[in-house]
Amino acid sequence: MNCLNNINRTQIPHDIIMAYLNLYKSIGMNDYNHSILESDYQAMVRQTINSDTYFFVNFLGMDITDTRLKTLIHKEVLPKNRDEKFILNLKMAFTKIHKETSSFELLTTEVFDLLKFLYKEVISDNKIAFQKVEKRGQKVSLLSNNVASKRDDLEALIRIYQERIAENKYEISFIIVNFFVDFINISPFMEKNDEIGILLTYLLLLTNSYEVFEYVSFMELLYESRSEFERVLKNASFNWVEGFSQVLPLHRYFINISLQAYDQINAIIRDYEFDSQLNKSNNVENTIDKLDDVFSKDDIRNVHPFISDSTINRTLKRLRDQEKIRPLGVGRSAKWIKLYVSKSKKMKFEQLDLKI
Question: From residue 251, how far is each of 68, 100, 219, 235, 327 by CA, in Å?
């Protein structure tokens, strides 16, 4: 609570103010972006959920092979251990976050429910609890309890967060960053405070106009700049007890990754507007023409992540009926082979003319 209690001490420098201008110019395009991407919105959100799950697991440094991780995320398989149970819980949590964004309210019960949802049957039940602290300056009798719960600290932190929002004096992401540093330092739960703190920050940004993270993976940006994140978070926690935390570098960090996300969505919008002027099936066919002679659906999806499976399947069926390609096997992982020589490819082998 030390950060939010002392938020008025921080002077926002000019570079951050200029970043605000760029950021809110992009946030002002949220409705336009959604209108352009509306037809493929659900598919794009599903891809974001998968990416967030994949990169957050990597951010946490969990001991799981890349192949197994992708299988858990993309296919319905049963978990073999507690780590895999957590990964499935994490994907469901991201799904729930995106589905209930508009109705989310920051409450102590909601935060505790998130902890339970993620770690039920993953860590022991007695670890899914608020930390206990000794009461100070109180007389203890035989019938009194000298132990308090950090639930009270979390409730106080959430109350102050809501007060800062209601004051309408501070930029929302700055309040969220101060909340995050306070949450990490009060560590209300017995375990997993860092993980819950990051997810809460992600959720609060998403529900406060940072809608870009519906289309661009927040966790991927976090993972790619992990060392920088850990450095600025560590610096932000210095002098926290005294109420003199240096949160501006961490605030800059979150502004920068938000601007990166908007740069990515702007590029997606440009490509999407261009692709929308073309026949999507013909676009997929052109991509197939440039692929190797043996290819898979995943190869097509890598080039066209937002084209629906039905469009890809329809194109494959049409080319098969035209006897341009044929399947090599069945199922989701089946390969396809071309029955013609791609115009964009040179013949790999040419017979020498040995006429004398």
Answer: 35, 26, 17, 12, 51
